[in-house]
Automatic annotation (TrEMBL):
Keywords: Membrane, Methyltransferase, Transferase, Transmembrane, Transmembrane helix. One of its GO terms (biological process) is methylation. CDD domains: AdoMet_MTases. This is Class I SAM-dependent methyltransferase. InterPro entries: SAM-dependent_MTases_sf. The chain crosses the membrane at residues 20-40, 46-68, 75-93, 120-153, 165-183, 203-224, 502-523, 564-585. GO terms for molecular function: methyltransferase activity. It comes from Chloracidobacterium sp. N.
């Protein structure tokens, strides 16, 4: 009876080399996990809002792969073809109609991905596509984790876990460096695939070259920040309205983030606008941007929150402000504004650029006062972390977040908040009520409609008649509407009121049912009744993941929703576990129960 020979990486390998290979594999898994989460969200826009689904797929796939690795080491040879299939689906997402996939769930407002009315067939199709992509990702990481399961069976468990953690920590640090350098996806995947190819050393590793080529082809012309895929194209915003090109205007651009429109880079200078008819669209948009900056007699200092590429900063300069501070979380968007904006506001010596989370800037600069605090159209198209359902801007629009911005308004100054209310009137009233609660003053509302937007104005000296006479726009005072407003304890600005997230719940139910089937097939039908199942370890693992999620959101609130905070949390957790594992190797505790006391105390302290 013939037996299939073991793969090369399993044959006569010393314990030291097995540990080395284990670390290389977990390094690759961490890099490719982070790469997959980011790239999938930039290729299929709905996944930019549901990065946690990708993370769940990765965790599930790795768990199944580790369990299967001891019995089926040959499965590892399929990881490179499977990853190539996933890369092909993502690279061709636009051609096959996945890029613009909408998520048929009315409970969650997704800019550019809202689905108002769908048939039952469309609902089923969208749900199956999301679940299908979930399992394709899970399959890739199942195959990737096969060697981890094999080597865990060849080494003492705690020693194997040490190298597992070391590889994972180095993977997080390496991907953090790649993000800091704003390198493209081809580099992410090349960094992750190279160690896997070294471990495999078989011809099928050549499929990895195809993965790198596909990611490079799909990313042509795009910029990649630590948060977003950014595409910049020549803008036809004004000429598309039937107006001839303005010969005075400099080149203008349209900037898209994660496949969705994000902002225009517009030339709204006085010289350009004066060349067009008085009622032209360009002149109207110029007036909209200048609304907050024309309403105060003191024009010394202005702060623009969510400054983007510089349209609001340019408006403040045109209005005569002596100093303008611009806070923007995305460093690449700031750089593109400096290089490409036709009015060049970011090159002025009286303009200060601050690359930071706006909420963190407010908390870290208590004494700064401004005549105008202007919130640009800060509508994030990405999640703060795959461990969280929060977007980058969620903590900015809570009662506490707006209150921290209001504290920076100088006496006689105003705060302006612009926002898209494409989602519906509920968003308009939610923001109005939140501002009222945060400032104690009734906001004045201008429904200008630019990018489906409105502008809220708050100031102790603002009067509706004066605002209307100065800006030329009708001013509204909205009645209070019974609607839940976001707070730091409930920061869900985009959650539509009085709805049930049935599509999201359907997806999670299908994932849970299919995952239970996969776990049963992998571990056996008697898993829950056999001694192999450890309920204490199971509950500790669930608690650990919940605690890590809490750390991400809490530290984001304290230090800003930035990629540096995310990387610090992930690296810190891995270092903590690595130290604990090393302690247990050297000093095995005879009784584990006493350790629960400091654990409970630390949790209560948090």
């Amino acid at each position: 009876m013939s037996t299939t020979p073991l793969p090369l990486w399993t044959r006569e390998v010393s314990a030291r080399r097995s540990a080395w290979y284990l670390g290389l594999t977990t390094f690759s898994i961490l890099v490719l996990e982070l790469a997959a989460i980011r790239w999938i969200g930039s290729q299929i826009r709905v996944f930019a809002y549901f990065a946690n689904l990708v993370l769940m797929a990765v965790f599930l796939g790795m768990g199944l792969g580790v369990a299967l690795g001891r019995r089926y080491p040959h499965l590892f040879e399929w990881v490179f073809p499977a990853l190539l299939v996933l890369a092909a689906v993502l690279a061709l997402s636009k051609q096959v109609g996945l890029m613009d996939l909408g998520f048929p769930d009315p409970s969650i407002s997704l800019w550019g991905a809202d689905v108002r009315m769908v048939s039952f067939g469309q609902f089923c199709l969208a749900t199956l596509v999301v679940v299908g992509l979930f399992w394709l990702v899970a399959l890739v990481f199942l195959l990737m984790a096969i060697p981890v399961g094999w080597w865990f069976g060849q080494l003492p468990p705690l020693r194997a876990y040490t190298y597992d953690l070391l590889g994972s920590l180095l993977g997080v640090l390496a991907f953090t460096a790649v993000a800091a350098l704003h390198l493209p996806p081809a580099v992410w995947f090349g960094l992750g695939l190279l160690p896997l190819a070294w471990v495999s050393r078989r011809w099928w590793a050549a499929f990895g070259i195809g993965v790198i080529l596909l990611t490079g082809w799909a990313s042509q012309g795009a910029y990649f920040s630590p948060y977003n895929r950014i595409d910049l194209a020549t803008d036809d915003f004004f000429t598309g309205e039937g107006q001839p090109p303005n010969p005075v205007a400099r080149p203008e651009y349209k900037l898209s983030v994660n496949r969705d429109f994000h902002q225009h880079l517009l030339d709204l200078s006085t010289a350009t606008v004066s060349q067009e008819p008085p009622d032209a669209l360009r002149a109207r948009i110029q007036k909209i941007y200048e609304i907050p900056f024309r309403l105060t007699s003191r024009r010394d200092r202005a702060l623009v929150v969510g400054a983007g590429t510089g349209n609001d900063a340019a408006a403040a300069l045109r209005a005569g402000f002596a100093h303008v501070s611009c806070v923007e979380i995305d460093p690449v968007i700031l750089r593109l504004g400096r290089e490409k904006h036709p009015e060049q506001p970011y090159t002025r010596p009286n303009v200060r650029l601050i690359n930071n989370d706006a909420r963190a800037y407010f908390e870290q600069n208590h004494t700064d006062q401004y005549d105008v605090v202007c919130y640009g159209l800060v509508d994030s198209h990405a999640m703060f972390s795959a461990l969280s359902t929060l977007r980058l801007d969620n903590y900015l629009y809570t009662v506490e977040g707006l209150r921290s911005g209001w504290k920076h308004v100088a006496p006689g100054g105003i705060m302006s908040v612009s926002f898209s209310v494409f989602a519906g009137d509920w968003m308009l009233y939610r923001l109005n009520n939140t501002l009222l609660e945060a400032t104690g003053l009734q906001p004045l509302v201008i429904l200008h409609g630019y990018n489906y937007g409105v502008t809220f104005l708050v100031g102790r000296e603002l009067m509706p008649q004066t605002v209307q006479a100065t800006t030329g726009f009708p001013v509204h005072v909205l009645p209070e509407m019974e609607i839940r407003i976001p707070t730091d304890d409930w920061p869900f600005l985009y959650l539509r009121p009085n709805t049930v997230p049935y599509a999201y719940l359907t997806v999670l139910t299908l994932i849970l049912v299919t995952a239970l089937v996969a776990v049963r097939q992998t571990f056996g039908a008697d898993l829950l009744t056999s001694r192999r199942f450890d309920p204490v370890l199971f509950l500790m693992g669930a608690a650990f993941l919940l605690l890590e999620t809490r750390m991400v959101t809490e530290l984001g609130l304290l230090f800003g929703s930035t990629w540096v905070v995310n990387a610090s949390v992930f690296a810190g957790v891995l270092v903590m576990v690595l130290l604990a594992n090393g302690y247990v190797i050297r000093r095995t505790a005879s009784r584990i129960q006493p350790w629960y006391v400091p654990l409970v105390i630390s949790l209560l302290a948090v």
